[in-house]
Structure formats: C-alpha cells, structure tokens
Design a protein that fits this description.
2 copies of one chain form a homodimer.
Chain A lengths: L15 H4 L6 H8 L4 E5 L4 E3 L7 E15 L5 E8 L3 E2 L12 E14 H10 L1 H27 L2 H18 L6 E3 L4 H8 L3 H13 L3 E4 L2 E4 L2 H9 L5
The first copy, chain A, binds a DNA duplex (30 and 30 nucleotides) through helix 7.
Chain lengths: 239, 239
DNA sequence: CGACACCTTGAAGAGGTTCAAGAAATGTGG
DNA sequence: CCACATTTCTTGAACCTCTTCAAGGTGTCG
C-alpha cells in the first residue's frame, strides 16, 4: 500500500465543475488546490479503502470506475453504489472515523485524495465550499432514497431498466454516448446492487434483447429504445 | 399551515446530547440556542414537509414519531425511514433547495426548526457544530447502506427481525424498555419500509409468535427472545 | 353502536431463485 | 501464438418465497 503520489491542482482540472463548487474567485481557487494532498492510482480489482480502515480523507474520482460494498457479519455483501469520474467517495467514514464499506476499482483508476480535516478547515472560510460539501452529502442521501425505492418496490425488469437509464445518463453528462455503454461490472455485481441474482440479471437482459430494447454483447450495451426503458420504469404494476 | 410557534433553548433541553454536539462551552451553547427558530407542533397524520416544498430548515424531533416517504411519478411510494426523538430530518432538501420526500408524523409530535442558513453560519464558527453536522449526514448515509443491505439480500424473516432489533435498540437508547415496544406505524408502513406486503409482515409476526420469539397484541410487541432475533438476522442462508 | 381502518389467515399464483450444464470470453504459461 | 484454466455469461427446469385475492376478525372513534 504505497500509492503513486503526484502533486496536482484543481484549478486546471477539467473535472472541476463536477466535484468542486462553481463561481470561485482566483484566491479561493488557489486555496482549493491545497485540498488535494495527492493523487493516487488504484489498480483494477484493488481497494481504495476497506471496511474498518481509519477514515482520513474523501476521494474525488479523476478517472476509472468504482463499486462500494457493505458486508454482513456472516459474509453476505451488497453493492451500495457504482461511482465514476467526478464523483466523491468516502462519506461513509465521517461518522465513526472508520470506513464502513469497501471501495474497489472496477477499472484502473486515479483519485484525488482530500484530507477531511482540510476540507473542514477550508469550508469554514470558503462559503461555497461549505455549501458544496453539504450538497454532496445530501445528494448521496437522496440517491440512496432512490435505491431504496428501487429495491423495495420494483420488479426485476424495472430495476434493470432504471439501472441502465441511470448509468447512461451519468455517462452522457460526462460526454459519452446516450445510447452505448460498456459495463465495468459483472452481472453478479449488477445483481447485488439491484437485489437480484446474476441469472435474473442475465435473463432480463435477454428479455430486453428479445423485445429489441437493447443490444447486448457481453458488457457492451447499446440502447435501441430509451423510451421503452422509461416506460418500463414508470409502468404501473397492474391497474 | 400556520404552526404553533414557541421560542425555546437547546441549552436546557434534555435531548441535547442526542441532537447537538457535546463539550460546548457556555458561550457556544448560548449561540446554539439561537439555532432553533421555533418549535412546531405536528399533529398525527399531518406532514412536517412535503416532497417539492422549498427547503429552509432541518428539524430536530423533540417528541413524537415520524416516517419519511418517497414517491414515484406513477404513485408508488416507499417508506425510507422512521424517526424518533433526538433525530434530525430534512437532510434530503439540501441538494436542490427542495425536499424530495414527505415527513409525516405518526403520533403527535413537536420539532425544533433550525433554519439551515443559520446552521451553516454557526458551523463556520463553532467547529464542533460543523463536525456534528457532517456526522449526522454521514450517519444517515451509513444507515441507508444498512437498509440497502436489508432490502437487497435478506428474506422476510430476517428483515422483520432486523427491523425489530433496530427499533428496540433505538428506543432503549432513549430510556425505554429493551423488550417491549409499541409500534407507531401500520403493517403496511412496515412492509413498505422492508420491501414486503402487509400480509407478509403480518404472517411473519405470526410466525415469530408461534416460535415464541415475540408476543404480539396489535401494535404492542414484547420481545421474548432477543437472541433468537439476532440469530435470524445473522443466519447464513444455506451453507 | 355502527362505520372505518387495521390486522390476520387461507388458497392460488407469479416472479425470482436454485441447481445444473454448457458456451463464450479472458487470462496464463509454455 | 496457441493450449489450457478460469472467470463470466446464458439458458433450462424445478422449486420456493412472497404476492395476490379474498374473507373474516379486531379495534377505534365519532
């Protein structure tokens, strides 16, 4: 665990608008640069942090793709989210000074490590940073409400449709295609996130292919009919 | 919508240790008193705030019991949590300046309304308050991870057992019995929270009664065998 | 006391899981 | 670069858990 460390600057980072507040003046921007202690590379399959580890920093993803998972005493685990460039991970560690989930890179990744004590210091002085931190945490709470809704009340097809729409929407916001994507995770990981078994995920993909809603070649997905996916998500169960 | 408003002080509130940071000096305590704009009474069955309403404040529950729910376009809704005295609600509204869920009182309640701009102001100056706000939000994120685990990977009995253990533990922390509790919510609301139908909740209660794990008289629950509940939650599915 | 909301229980049915086998892709070492 | 091992994905069939539909019971409140 000796990460490659490179000194960097937010002020000329092209992801700034994703992970940092807008409308900062020059001086504030320079101070924000000091937030990032180091950049760290995280190889595919390795963890950025583990459940139980001491919490020291939040991480802004520069490149790559992560999953976060929680685990029960008896070894079951649940994927709680997939994170991509510009998103922040590590918020779970703040409460008890220890992380309560694992963050694992699903492809080679690079993150900006921002020591939390510095975030707290600086956000006392830069109001827009304070506001930003609050919004990021609130956004995560709201996202999780959505996942609870999905897990609590949707059927397999609805879950997978919602999942695909969400992924493609976030990718599109980052300049990628609205209709094509490459899944960075296995069927099993999708299933864990959606509360389904991997076979069910696979079968549901196959059903979507039959219905000509998507094309699936392994992890390469092409969405043929976005509207159909939206209809599936919003579909009233029966009446 | 013209709530009963009473001016109050945190400094002599017996719930202070639940909703406010510890170890404040006299001056800080006095300033924190100014956080609470008003107290508001919320009658059973009425909402403290609604989905879509402008976000202005966080609320600390003084007395009573709430549920929060999110709703889909097509009208399905999901209970995202039950909140009791000393807990904070409203965090969902920070991201977009609008609430994204409903908070409804399940029994007559009283809350302390804390305008969020004041919280932000004061937490720039009182470090322990800043830290406290961060922890509250992080705690909510971690709680929701737990719910995702429950919804994504547990079976009906495990869900209900986990639910009862969680409720009774929180009640115990507030000085109530470790073994007796009165449910403030219907079977349907429990079911919504746990991703089950009300009939399944009812049947699972009945099974627990058969197994002499609990006594159930409507909403009055007596836990006879806490260990059994814990075993059910931690039970490995098969192997 | 009667209306209404809430809860329980039964029987039938559906959706998802489990188990199993095979195919396709990926990685590894010679 | 190819053969082989490994991981990942797909598909089928049987099974099981939870849901749905239905009816009746219990409790509460005007």
């Amino acid at each position: 665990m000796n990460p490659v460390a490179i000194k960097v600057a937010c002020s000329n980072c092209n992801l700034r608008e994703l992970c940092m507040p807008l409308g900062l003046n020059k001086e504030e921007l320079e101070r924000i640069d000091d937030l990032v202690a180091v950049r760290r590379k995280v190889l595919r399959g390795t963890a950025l942090f583990h459940n139980g580890e001491t919490f020291k920093a939040l991480y802004a993803i520069r490149t790559g793709f992560f999953k976060t998972t929680v685990t029960t005493e008896d070894g079951r685990d649940q994927v709680t989210g997939f994170q991509m460039a510009g998103e922040i991970i590590g918020l779970d560690g703040i409460v008890n000074d220890h992380h309560t989930c694992d963050a694992v890179a699903l492809e080679d990744a690079e993150v900006c490590e921002m020591p939390f004590h510095r975030i707290e210091e600086l956000s006392r002085e830069v109001n827009s940073l304070q506001r930003h931190v609050h919004k990021i945490m609130s956004r995560e709470i709201v996202r999780e409400h959505g996942v609870m809704l999905l897990l609590g009340s949707m059927r397999a097809e609805e879950r997978l449709a919602a999942f695909l729409l969400n992924l493609v929407q976030r990718l599109h916001a980052r300049g990628f295609s609205q209709s094509e994507l490459i899944l960075r995770m296995t069927r099993e990981e999708i299933g864990s996130y959606l509360g389904l078994k991997l076979e069910t995920v696979s079968r549901t993909f196959s059903k979507f292919v039959d219905d000509q809603i998507v094309e699936v070649k392994q992890r390469h997905i092409r969405i043929l009919d976005t509207e159909a996916l939206k209809r599936i998500v919003n579909l009233q169960p029966c009446l």
